[in-house]
Each structure stands twice: as C-alpha cells, then as structure tokens.
Queue: 2 jobs
Job 1
Amino acid sequence: MPTVVTQSPEETEQLGEILGRQAQAGSVFGLTGDLGAGKTAFVRGFARGVGSTRRVHSPTFALLHEYPGGRHPVFHLDLYRLNSPDDIRAAGLDEYLESPDGITLAEWIERWNPAPGGHIRHIHFRCVDEHRREITHDE
Ligand code: ADP
Ligand code: MG
C-alpha cells in the first residue's frame, strides 16, 4: 500500500489526477478520513484526470454531484449525513456503489460498511499538520 505525504492542496489534486487518468469505468473508490483531510481536493484532481472540466464542489449539501465530459462520467458522493446502508439505499445511491455506469468516488464510505475484499478501492486521508496530508491507497 503506497503512502504519500502531500504538502499542499495542489499536490493532493495532482495525486488524484494521476489516478483519474488511469481509472476504468465501473471503478468505485471509497475515501475515508476526517473533515478537512483532503478528500474533496483529491476528487477535484481526479475528475480532471478523467477529463472533465466541470468544477468540483464539496457535496456536503448534495448527496451526489456528477462531472460529465471526460472519458467516463464521474460520480462524487458524500455519505456523511447518511447513517447506514439502509439510508444509502433509500436515497437511491446504492447503484453508484455497486455498479456505476462511470466511476464513483464516495466520501465517508464508512457509512456503507462494505464487506472486506469487495470491489471498492479504499483511499485513506490523514492530516499530519496544517499543510501535510498522508494519503494511503491500494495501488
Ligand atoms: P475533505 O473533503 O476531506 O473534508 P477538503 O478537500 O474539502 O477535505 O479540504 C481540505 C482542506 O485542507 C482545504 O481547506 C485545503 O486548503 C487544506 N489543505 C492543506 N493542506 C492540504 C493538502 N496537503 N492536501 C489537501 N488539502 C490541504
Ligand atoms: Mg469533502
């Protein structure tokens, strides 16, 4: 599991952009880490790497944002305000976590409580200090 420490939001975006360039349709990335750890910054770069020029927002007040225009649609979920897998299903978001017609990045994937060993690739974000973020990912 490679771990990188980024020194700025731009560096976190660059890491997202690299993974976004390689991402295949049907992929699901589960992002974990506290508020302010850089999950949304990562998604901003990732969407750019997939080729979308749509601006990335923090989805805190919307459960789902879609960024079209790239090689594949990018779906950006924030599950923070949903408490359980049942709530996620009731909101109609389960299809984005199971078999997206594009690429899904889900902040607060803990809420979905996926079975270990499933298809979701986890990326963990940790604040080291004001400017540094430790990011650990599957590949
Ligand atoms: P999250 O989505 O995890 O809540 P955001 O990406 O919205 O986090 O916010 C990260 C915050 O941390 C931003 O205010 C950003 O400017 C700041 N920041 C400082 N250093 C970094 C870094 N290395 N990577 C990402 N964000 C950083
Ligand atoms: Mg966020």
Job 2
Amino acid sequence: MKSLENKVAVVTGSTSGIGLAIAQRMAHAGAEIVMNGFGDPAEIERTREALAASAKVPVHFIPADLSKGAEAQMLIRQAIAIAKRVDILVNNAGIQHVASIPEFPDEKWDAVIAINLSSAFHTSKIALADMQKRGWGRVINIASAHGLVASVNKSAYVAAKHGIVGLTKVTALENAKTNITCNAICPGWVDTPLVRKQIEARAAAQSISVEEATQQLVGEKQPSERFVSPEHLAELAVFLCSEAGSSITGSSYTMDGGWTAQ
Ligand code: NAD
C-alpha cells in the first residue's frame, strides 16, 4: 500500500513550482489530489490529466482566487463536496513583491498578506473542522527562510511568512491532542517562476546576464550556492504526512542550503 493511499490532499498554488511538485509527489504516494492556482486553462487541464494518468489517482482542479477569503473557504468546501473530505492541506500559494517600505504599493502589501498569509487561515478554518471529525489530518504551510529571518525590500513577504510560522504554531497547539499536525516548511531559493522574476529584474537593473544575476542572488544568501529542489521539498511534505511524522507538530523545517544557519 502506498503511504498516502485513501488520503485526500488539497495543495494550493499547485499549477506551478513547489506546489506542483508537492501535488505530483503526493499523487504518486497514492493521495487523491485537489489542485488550485492560476494559469492557462488548457495547460492546467493537460497537467491534471497527465498526473491522474501517471499516478492512477483522481486529480481535481478548483480555480479559487486565494486573494479573497471567501474563495479560499469555498475551495475547501468544494474539495469536500467533490472528494468527500480533506485529510492533507498544503498552504503553498504565494506571490512576491520587492520594494522598500516607502515605495511599497498599498495594493501589493494587501495582496501579499492576503495570498501568503490570510488564505492559509481561511483554508485551515474549513479544513480543520473537517479533519477534527475524523481526528486525523496534516496541515503543511509553505513558509520560507523569510519566515525566520528578514531581507530588505520584502516587508510584506517577510511579515506574511513570519505570520504563517506563528499560525502554524497555533494550529499545532489547538490540535495537539489529536492526530492532526501542522508544520511549516521554510525553503531557501528554489528555481521557480516566483524567483525567475526576481533574477530577471536584477539582471535588467544591473545590465548583467541572467546567469550572473542567478549566481549573485543565490550566493548572497545561500551558502550551498545551489537552488533547493522542489522535489526534495515535496519529499519532506510527504514525510510530514507519514505515521513517523505524527509527533512532529508546530515545527518549522528549513531546507535552505544553510541560509538561516548563518
Ligand atoms: P510559483 O510562482 O511557481 O507558484 C505560485 C503558485 O501560487 C502558482 O500556482 C500560482 O498560480 C499560485 N497563486 C498565486 N496567486 C494566487 C491566487 N491569488 N490564488 C490562487 N493561487 C495563486 O512560486 P513558488 O516559488 O513555487 O512558490 C510557492 C510557495 O513557496 C510560495 O508560498 C512561496 O512564497 C514559497 N517559497 C518559494 C521560494 C522560492 O525560492 N521559489 C522560497 C521560499 C518559499
């Protein structure tokens, strides 16, 4: 039997990057998957179909906009309506905006906080009530090294990621006597569209190549000088869902090539 057989996993922001890798790994571990996120509908449908075929599990897609609390709650209600329950919730959807505080647009602040932090409250609120009926669940919040340490020009992102580390602890404590756990994963730099945008902006601003900008960006913070792999993050997420993970709760797991060890 596969480790996540008979489990239903909702992964927010799973049309791309880390969320997609987690959805794929969890599907191959046997979980029924609910995908969510933005993107070209035809491409999302191809990804959904390919995953269902290769992993031989039902894979659904629910296109909720997680900047809106009501849609985040609706995502979980619809997942329960379609798949009958939610056993695993991975709060992964996220965006970035880079600017100093005086120059930070108000609407960008609101969007980063809404998507990177508040959406996890709204999804957890509905999912936890469902998990509590069965006394088993796994909530995994994808935070960041920026959930533990700060960088300049990322006020909203750092505030949201520190916030989600706090939300992780409260979720863990409120459910500590059950088999519902909640943990945060704190990646360093991962090569995804979210980071590509920052690399391209740096290359343009300094008139340097994308390769040079990549080396600068990763080398500045991450002693390994290598990107963290989405597949390795996905392995950690699956481990946290295992029986061996049942006493791990309220933790923040770094996978950051040494970033926060400094
Ligand atoms: P990505 O841009 O590849 O993926 C982000 C996902 O979120 C996409 O599926 C996108 O469609 C979805 N999304 C964005 N806004 C949404 C909204 N309003 N409603 C629903 N879905 C929405 O980025 P990624 O790097 O894979 O990021 C995933 C998570 O990992 C984020 O929370 C990010 O902060 C975190 N993270 C990323 C890195 C990194 O280096 N890439 C490092 C640490 C943490």
